[in-house]
Every structure is written in C-alpha cells, then in structure tokens.
Write a structure and sequence with these properties.
The complex is a heterodimer. By secondary structure, chain A is α/β, with parallel strands linked by helices. Chain A has 18 helices and 24 strands. A 6-stranded mixed sheet of chain A has the order 6-9-10-3-11-12, with helices on both faces. Chain A has a 6-stranded mixed sheet with strand order 18-21-22-15-23-24, with helices on both faces. In chain A, strands 2-1-4-5 form a 4-stranded antiparallel sheet, with helices on one face. In chain A, helix 14 runs parallel beside helix 15 (437-452). The longest helix of chain A is centred in the middle third of the chain and has 16 residues, at 174-189. Chain A starts with a strand and ends with a helix. The relative contact order of chain A is 0.10. By secondary structure, chain B is mainly alpha-helical. Chain B has 2 domains: 70-330, ABC transporter involved in vitamin B12 uptake, BtuC (Orthogonal Bundle); 334-370, no CATH class. In chain B, 70% of the residues lie in helices and 1% in strands. Chain B has helices at 2-16, 19-45, 50-59, 68-94, 102-119, 127-153, 157-177, 181-184, 206-209, 218-235, 237-247, 249-254, 259-283, 302-313, 318-332, 335-339, 346-374; strands at 185-186, 191-192. Chain B has a two-stranded antiparallel ribbon. The longest helix of chain B has 29 residues, at 346-374. Chain B is globular and about 65 Å long. The chains are: A alpha/beta, B mainly alpha. At the A-B interface, helix 1, helix 10, helix 11 and strand 20 of A face helix 11, helix 12 and helix 17 of B.
C-alpha cells in the first residue's frame, strides 16, 4: 500500500522541551492509523504540525511522495487534510448546514449563497457515509454526537481525504462511540485515510489497522494492530506495566456526611433549571460518583455544593449542619475539601509560588499566621512535606511558580492540599482530566486511601472508565436530574450509557432522613 | 572577607534572574528611551541651544541656582502627593483593579482637609492631624463608592472612576463656590485661602536640613506609608487575600476569600492613600510657611493621573512607586528651566508619556514572552486549560 502522508524526522522544540524528537510517521491510503501516547507525549504537537498550526524545526512532510510546505490550516485544507478537534469549532447558533459550508459557501449568481445545492450535497454525503443528521437543525439543540458528525461532514464537504480525529471519543456515550467506530470504518472503506489520536486501547484494538506509539516526544514504534495486544501497547506507551484494575477493600458505611436535599440551580442565562430537584447522601467510607455526559448539570451541582454558585432552592448539609448559605471559607474550615473542575481557573494561582498554593486554604489559620502576620516558616515546612509526600515535581521546590509545573504535578499539588486538610468530605470534580496514565493511577490511589480512612467522597466525572473503576455507588445525571442511583457492582457500562443518554430513567430517588439524622440536625440548630 | 563576597555574589546571581530584576531593568529601559526621545525633540526644535537644554533636562531638580540642597528638598516636597497617588493606583492594582479615579479621591481628600484646616479653629494642636485623617477618610469614601459599584453592580471601574473624578471636582468647586465661599475663598484670586497655622503640617526640622525648599513632615508620612503598604501587602493575611484576588479572582474565591469585600476594601484603602496625598498638599506649610491654595478651576487635578505612570513605572511595588514618584518629579522640575531657554516645558510631559508607553510595552512584551514559554507543556491539555495573562477587572 502506498503512503499518502509521510512525516520524516520531525523535530519540534519548545523552550526547555523537545516535544517531537525525530518522529517518523507514515499514513497509508485508506487505513485507520492510531496515534497513541500519554499526555505530553507529543501527539497533538505532531498533528498540529501536519495541520499547519506549528512549524517543525526540522524534518519534512511528504504528500503522495512530494514534499509539501504547510504553514497554516488553510494550506492543510488545500492538501485535503481535515481535522476534528477535541473541542468542536462550531457556531452554536447556526444550523448544521451553515456550519458545514462556512468559508466555502457555494454561490449562485456570484453573490447569493446557494443553500439548496449545499443541502443536496450534504444529504448525499450523509447517505453515502451513513451519517444521521438533519442539515437544518441548530447546533446548540443537537447532541454532542451529532455535533461531531457535523464536524466530520465539514471535512467531507471540503473533499478532505486525510481525516484527523483528536480524541473524538472523550465526549461520547458508549453507544455513540460504537456508532463513530462504524462511521470511521465506512470512511476508510471509501478510501479516506484516518489518523485517530487517542489513549484508549480498547478503541484502537476495535477499529484501527496500525498504531504508532509516542512516548516523551519519541517514536516508540509502529505496529500492526492484529499483531499486538493491549498489554504490549500500554507497555510501549508508558514504559512499564500499568495496573488497569484498582484494588479496593470493601468498607463499611458510616454516618451520612454530605446530604443534598431537593437542590435546584437556575441558570442566569437561560433561566432553566440546570440542576433540578436533586437529592442524595454521601456516607463515610464510600466513593459516590456522579456520571453523565458533560453539560447535564453536574458542574453546577458541584458549584452549588462547594459554594461557588448559589442554589435557587433546596439545602446542603455537611455533618448534619445546613451550609446552604454559608460562605466558601466556612465550608473550607468546617470539613469540606474540593478538587475543582478547572485547576487553572479555580485550583491554583498560577503566578504564585507552589508553597503559597499549597497553603491557599490554610494561611488564615494558626500557625500559618499569628495576629494577622503571615508566618513563612510553617508555610515552607508544610510545603516541603507535601511536596515530598505527594511527589510533586518542580524546578525550584516550594518557590516554583505554580504555572511552571506540568499539568500532572499541578493536579498533584491540588490533591495534596485538599487531602492535607483532612476534611470529612471530599468533592472531586474531573479529577484526572488531562492527566497521563501514571498520574491517574496516583490520584485514584490517593482518593481510595482517603475512603479507606473513612472519608466521604463525592466525585463528578465525565469519563466512564473512571466512574466504573473507582466508585462504590454511581448516580447518573441527565438534564439536571438524577436518573439512576445504583451500586457500581450492579451495573454494566452499557446500561450506564443508556441512562447517560436519557434512554432509560428511574424516578428521582427520594431522600429520607432517619430519625437519628433528624435529631442530629435539630441539636445542631439548637446549638446555634 | 571572601565569605562575604561569595554571599554577595550568590545573592546577586539570585537577584539577577528574579522577576524584580527584570522589572527594574524594564523600567530603566523605558526611562532611557523616554529621555532619548526628549533629547531628540530638543535637537529638532532648536539645535543652537541644545547643549544647554539637554543639560537642564538631565539636571532636573538640580537646576536650582541656589544649590543642590534646595533642589533635593523641593524634589521631595513636590513628590510627596505623587507618592501617595502612585501608591493609591499601585495598591488597587495589586487587587486587580485599575484605579483611574485617584484624582477624584485626591480632590476629596484635599477639600475635606482644607475645610477642617480653615474652619476647625477649635481643634488646637490637633487640627492638622485631624484634617489629615479626615482628608484620608474622604478619599476612602470616594474610592469605596467605585469599589461598591464594581462589587455589587459590576459597574466598570474605569468608567465609574473617571466619572467620579469629574463629580468630585464639580462637587468641591460648587460647595466652595457657593455655600462656603464667604469663609474659605479669596474672591480676587478665586482660590481658597491658606489653612490655619495650627492646621499646617510641621516642618519637623526638615527646613533646617533643606532650607527654603518647603519640605515638611509630609515626606516622613509618605515614607512611612510606603513601608506600611509594603508590609500589609507582603506580610499580612489581609494583604495576601487582596493579592490573591488580584492574581486570580476565581481561585481566591474558591479558596474562601470574599472577593467582593476585598475589592471594596482595596478601593477604600487606595482612596484613603490618595486622600492623604491631597490633604498633605493643602496642609503643607510650603516655602517660608506661606501655605498652599486650591484654585477653583474646572479642571481635574493632574496629581491623581500622575499616579498611573508612577505605579506603572514602579511596577506597583511600594518601594518602586517611591522612586518612580521621585523620578517623575525630578524630570518635571526640569520643565521651567528649559522653558527659559525657549523650549516648551511640555517636553517633560512628553517624556513622561513616552516612559508610560514603554513601561506598558515592557509589561506586554514580558507577558507575551511568558505566554510563549507556557505553550510548551500544554501539548495535550484542552484549550480551555491554557493559562491566560493576568486580567484586570474593569
């Protein structure tokens, strides 16, 4: 088979790091070629070079055996290279059709957009590749899967032959993933060549012909999928054996630490109930995981519990005390730890030092301050201890600016800070987002340790793998409601997918307080 | 001996790569470019007198024919209000707020201190401290209004600040112009009369060291304030909270800081500083104890606006602000001597403007370099996780 794209000895350096080190990558016509690697392995850099967003320092790119110069995504498009980005590039308020033809609108009479002809072409493409889409739907009304199909159609409409998919399955339900796999197979049957960026081994085994593995900017090898196994691939990718299964001891449930009662959050923008009458409890010694597709109200639920957002109605109880209207600092100081969804926006002050970030929720407490004066020594001691215990790697120890840490180490620093608070309740949102396999393993181990120490843990995750591997109990959220409350061992991934997609729903589980719990709440209120 | 040398070298090496060093070099570069432009303009406008013109420009405060001590004294005296407005802008900036309203706060401080300085006859020897403090509080109130508007109603701080500059100036001019006119205004000059003897800040022997320069106790208060503000920002829990709001408002909120309260307090303190600056101006005994006057013109006072380049040039660091204020005043003092040679004294303003541009430019260049550097680890991070440069609330 003939190579449609050859990237030879590509080297790309960024200050202080070689992102791509003499990488050679060959794409054959009509194949599905996986690009596998951990975060920071250089996958995105390599594809950004192919797509014209970065310029390689060394090396050459050949298309059909002819050397080409790709300086911008427009050049890439002229060479029939298209890309589906991880975060879709769509105009939310436009129709599917308008998004597809944007920039290359077919004209009639030289000035008027020929929508009829465009629609015709799109429908033909839909039929040919079995993509189910209505060109007149508005993007914000359709599912994430349909939005992705729009992105695919955008490439097909531009007659791209080389299709790059950047982690396309991260946002999809299992059912949608299967559909995407079929689509990819269809595309390759029609002669399209596909590059599939991923770190999910199952997907590679299911659909790809060959796989190229990168590790720390180097090319570790290219193998035929039929000649390899998941274990071999993960070994190539990480350089060591990886535990796919997390060991968990059975635990006994203690008192309810967090109770959420009929909680609703109304969106300022749309006036919709993004969190709709949600009730549940989290007990000591269990990990409860809220599963669901991004955008079903999980983030808002997390904000309402942590205090970053005011709920419109309902109550949150922490250790039987109502904290619905308490300040964030009060929650921080009274037994709530919170690993936030967005570590750059909320989790860290990037310009500040690692030490100051590690003490971010404690510097107002003794011994870190005395009579309002910051005490440097205890802060540095704490920082050094946490850096040691949690293996946070940094250039200058406690004095390193948090922004110069790698993503994994930033997250480690946040986890260190939140676990060090020794709170009864830990809220952890998207804990492993953007982390590589090693860091994921680390984070999960730490969280399970906390559970074994009798902490109550609530996780919110958009990644099914994470949900299935770590939780004791799963709550599925769909359109702001909890549609399923089930023990992790009692449900399969497929069934979970049906709940996540809203196909199956259980009635909203009602929260009932035991007499003992009511008594405790009453005593606390009486004490106030 | 060698030990000390080694220690110093290692300290110097450490400092050489620090952010502070970069900031200082950037500021010095901006100053150099500004002065270079001033020299070019002098050369273009009148080449015959250029040698003398350039030397007068560079001599700044030392142009005074009566000797360098008077020059230094005058420099410190005139710089005193500027140190305060510079601090007012810098302090707010540390909380991520752009205090363009320092002029209004300065005017309010000046006005209230002036009222007490003229009408507070019964206060005896406490007249000047009370007038000073009341001036500070008036400025604090004016600053707090901006802060409250921002925190509670999300009103753009630049807009409310500019508007309050005008509101402040017209309120003051109207109160002085109508109800208080008989008591406080010298009708012939359309200026306030000078404040009572007891209301004037003492010379505190500074007139012995710098005779005839007008320098008074105000400069001591200014230096004390620089130290105090540095201490608050760097050593206290309160300062840490304000700075965390300035560096990342969301993270500060997440960590439990009441960021609305922080913005209001920060603006109130900034206003207090500017107000003290205004009060010290009007309460100053000035040369030969003649006192200062406020002129009832409908012009927003420049001292507040000067705080902006001073804060920028001083990189919002209190000590930096101190030296930046001295420098700006140094150059300003070159204005009149140059005018007597036929050069427009506005050349000085031009130089200040150029310095402002270049220090802002240095800030932007620094930020974009930092941004470029940050691109490397983002490789596989989702795009919304990529660091954004520090945003300033407006």
């Amino acid at each position: 088979m003939q190579n449609i794209i050859e990237m030879r000895n590509i080297t790309k350096r960024f200050p202080g790091i070689v992102a791509n080190d003499k990488i050679t990558f060959e794409l054959r016509r009509g194949e599905i070629h996986a690009l596998l690697g951990e975060n920071g392995a250089g996958k995105s850099t390599l594809m950004s070079i192919l797509f014209g967003m970065y310029k390689a320092d060394e090396g050459q790119i050949l298309k059909d055996g002819v050397e080409v110069d790709i300086n911008s995504p427009n050049d890439a498009n002229d060479l029939a290279i298209g890309m589906v980005h991880q975060h879709f590039k769509l105009v939310e308020v436009f129709s599917v059709l308008d998004n597809i033809i944007m920039g290359i609108e077919p004209m009639k009479n030289g000035a008027i957009i020929d929508r009829k002809k465009a629609k015709q072409t799109i429908l033909e493409l839909c039929e040919k590749y079995e993509l189910h889409l209505n060109p007149d739907d508005i993007i914000e009304d359709i599912t994430v899967g349909a939005q992705q199909r729009t992105e695919i159609l955008k490439m097909l409409f531009r007659k791209n032959d080389i299709l790059i998919f950047d982690e396309p399955t991260a946002v999809l339900t299992p059912q949608e993933i299967r559909q995407l796999m079929v689509t990819m197979k269809n595309l390759s049957k029609e002669g399209k060549s596909i590059i599939f960026i991923t770190h999910k081994l199952d997907e590679i085994m299911a659909v790809c012909d060959r796989v190229t593995v990168l590790r720390r900017g180097r090319h570790m090898g290219t193998v035929d999928v039929k000649d390899t196994t998941k274990e071999k691939l993960s070994n190539m990718m990480v350089g060591r054996e990886v535990d796919f299964f997390i060991e968990k001891k059975p635990t006994t449930l203690g008192d309810a630490v967090l109770m959420v009662e009929n909680l609703s959050v109304t969106s300022d923008l749309t006036n919709k109930q993004v969190v709709d009458n949600v009730s549940f409890k989290v007990h000591k010694g269990e990990i409860v995981c809220i599963a669901g597709i991004d955008g079903n109200g999980q983030s808002e639920l997390g904000y309402a519990i942590s205090g970053l957002l005011k709920p419109s109605s309902g109550n949150v109880y922490l250790n039987y005390e109502t904290i619905t209207h308490k300040s964030i600092r009060y929650r921080n100081d009274h037994g709530m730890s919170h690993i936030p969804e967005d570590r750059h926006k909320y989790g860290l002050i990037l310009q500040d030092t690692l030490a100051n970030n590690l003490v971010l929720k404690k510097y107002h407490l003794i011994p870190f301050q005395k009579r309002g004066i910051i005490q440097n020594e205890p802060i540095l001691n704490l920082a050094e201890q946490l850096i040691n215990d949690f293996d946070v790697r940094s250039g200058q120890g406690p004095k390193t600016p948090a922004g110069s840490l790698s993503g994994g180490n930033q997250q480690k620093a946040i986890i260190a800070r939140e676990i060090d608070k020794d709170s009864d309740f830990l809220l952890s949102i998207q804990t492993v987002r953007g982390l590589d396999v090693g860091a994921v393993e680390f984070a999960h181990k730490k969280i399970i340790q906390e559970r074994d120490r009798g902490k109550a843990i609530l996780m919110i995750s958009f990644e099914l793998d994470e949900v299935m591997s770590i939780s004791d109990r799963i709550l599925v959220m769909y359109e702001g409601k909890i549609v399923k409350d089930v023990l992790a061992k009692d449900i399969t991934v497929d069934e979970l997918g049906l709940y996540m997609a809203g196909v199956k729903k259980d009635p909203n589980p009602l929260l009932s307080f035991s007499q003992e719990e009511l008594d405790k709440m009453e005593t606390l209120r009486g004490n106030k | 001996m060698n030990d000390i040398k080694q220690k110093l070298t290692s300290k110097w090496n450490h400092f050489k790569v620090s952010q502070g060093f970069k900031n200082i070099t950037a500021s010095l570069l901006a100053i150099l470019l500004g002065i270079l432009l001033g020299i070019i303009i002098i050369l273009i406008t009148n080449i015959n007198n250029a040698g003398l013109g350039i030397s007068r420009l560079l001599l700044g405060a030392f142009n005074n024919p009566r000797g360098p001590w008077i020059g230094i004294g005058q420099l410190l005296y005139y710089a005193t209000p500027l140190i305060f407005t510079g601090l007012a802008v810098a302090f707010a900036f540390k909380t991520g707020v752009f205090n363009i309203g320092a002029s209004g706060q300065y005017t309010m401080g000046l006005f209230v201190a002036c009222v007490i300085g003229i009408m507070g006859d019964g206060l005896g020897f406490m007249q000047w401290p009370i007038a000073l403090l009341a001036g500070g509080l008036a400025g604090a109130l004016w600053g707090a209004i901006t802060g409250i508007l921002k925190a509670l109603f999300n009103v753009n701080i630049v807009i409310s600040g500019i508007m309050l500059n005008y509101i402040g100036m017209f309120v003051v001019n109207n109160i002085l112009g109508v109800p208080l006119r008989p008591y406080m205004v010298d009708g012939a000059q359309n200026r306030t009369v000078v404040v009572d003897q007891a209301a004037r800040t003492p010379y505190a022997f500074l007139d012995k060291i710098f005779p005839n320069s007008g320098l008074d106790f105000g400069i001591i208060i200014a230096i004390g304030s620089v130290v105090l503000i540095w201490f608050v920002l760097n050593k206290t829990v309160f300062g840490r909270e304000l700075k965390s709001v300035g560096m990342n408002r969301d993270a500060a909120k997440y960590a439990g800081v009441n960021e609305k309260r922080a913005i209001i307090l920060s603006m109130a303190i900034a206003g207090f500083l500017a107000g003290i600056g205004g009060a010290l101006f009007i309460l100053a005994p000035s040369t030969r104890n003649l006192g200062n006057q406020y002129s009832l013109e409908n012009v927003v006072l420049g001292a507040g606006f000067d705080g902006i380049p001073i804060a920028l040039l001083g990189n919002s660091h209190p000590v930096g602000v101190f030296f930046a204020a001295l420098f700006i005043q140094y150059i300003k003092l070159a204005g009149d001597p140059m005018q007597s040679l036929g050069y427009a004294s506005e050349i000085v303003n031009l130089i200040i403007a150029v310095i402002l541009y270049f220090s802002a430019f240095a800030l932007i260049v620094g930020q974009s370099i930092a941004k470029l550097k940050k691109k490397k680890p983002k490789d596989d991070l989702p795009s919304d996780l990529v660091t954004k440069p520090q945003e300033v609330n407006q």
